[in-house]
Specification:
homodimer; mainly alpha; DNA-binding
Amino acid sequence: MKRRTSPDETRERIVRAAGEVFGRHGFDGTTVRQITRRAGVNVASVNYHFRDKGELYMRVLREAKCLAGDLAATEFRGAPEEQLRGFVFTFVRRLLDPNRPAWHVQVITQEMMRPTPALDFLVREMTEPIFRRVRELIGAVAGRKLPGPKLDMLASSVLGQCLFYVRSRPMIERLAPELSRGPDRIERISDHIATFTLAALCHLFNKRPSARKGKTSNRGRVPALYAV
Amino acid sequence: MKRRTSPDETRERIVRAAGEVFGRHGFDGTTVRQITRRAGVNVASVNYHFRDKGELYMRVLREAKCLAGDLAATEFRGAPEEQLRGFVFTFVRRLLDPNRPAWHVQVITQEMMRPTPALDFLVREMTEPIFRRVRELIGAVAGRKLPGPKLDMLASSVLGQCLFYVRSRPMIERLAPELSRGPDRIERISDHIATFTLAALCHLFNKRPSARKGKTSNRGRVPALYAV
DNA sequence: TGACAATCCAAACATTTGTTTCAAACTTTT
DNA sequence: AAAAGTTTGAAACAAATGTTTGGATTGTCA
């Protein structure tokens, strides 16, 4: 007779449940019993399959980083402006897409805000490459060599805009509920951030007015290729 | 003989210590004994002076909101662009000034990210007014009536840029340490955000190029009046 | 001073925490 | 089918949690 749940499935169920709870309450705020209750397994399973709570947490972070995808390695085609726009669209979609399990982003955000010893891993493995990538894209749009700190701040402006919608979600839902609703909200937000950013860069570095203005033109749409 | 510590001082010591610990670990991650140890008082003091841990937390939030200042009510003078610039300078200073106790900002940030029932209070009392103010300032700069959601996203772009430096601090310190150091870092960051934002608005709404570009001009400096 | 209330403190309270134990149930191997 | 190795589950563990208790200490006012 087949076992009701295989050992591997138990492990997966624990990781998924752990991701959801860790994502909502962070490492400290989460109890092992919350996880096992949600996963429908025994309390001891956590210590059997993973050494302890900390080890399980690391496993969850690794999973989240993995599912977050190699955004940094993605190639975008077209003019530098189009590439930056493509990046913003992909990044925001990764952050807000309701089809993806929400805990991937949430658990990473929690770790960024209330660091545990695991933060170094996350920065090294995903934040740093993404940050570097944004700097490259911005440098290309600017079309000239920029001093490092200036480039860092420009990249921070882009990432800050994107992450705001994730990290301040409970706030935004109260202040501007329209922004959180509607099936096209991801595209609206992406389009705004990209347009805003390109407008700033365009003005700061005296590029041509870049054609875009007002509603979404076909040129402005992110190619389906990017819309992972 | 005078008591070593007056009851009022005990209360204050508890609130300050609680602010520091809550700011670092959030409500869940904080234990009453951590607070009392840091404050140098007995464990029971918390339940004596404040009803329970939750009541103390609310008191801390109220204090933080109070010390955060009535940024929303501050009047800025000059052209709309100057007013927006003044707001950014003041806001960023409030967020990053090392002379102010860091926990004011941190405890609010923690609450935004991992909401407790107290979030409604915070949004109503400080976030909402600030958000509304930014929308007004941006509307003035744009010089035309804008649809609500558009205004919301523009405000989000400004606040997102500012808050990034607070919420991603542990990350930034690893990625771009230069941004976290130096006595002029607050001014450098403020100046960048204001310039970046005004450049975008200027380009989006076809205003005149606004003169600013490159290094800080005298016009660009925030008047001492604003530099609270 | 002496009585009264306010404040403080050590100890204990009942829960909840992460983890361990060990026997039963199951799967695989012999 | 018997033996060996995995996986599960109920119960128990010590440690830590928020809170309460009762008595000691302090300040106030008659």
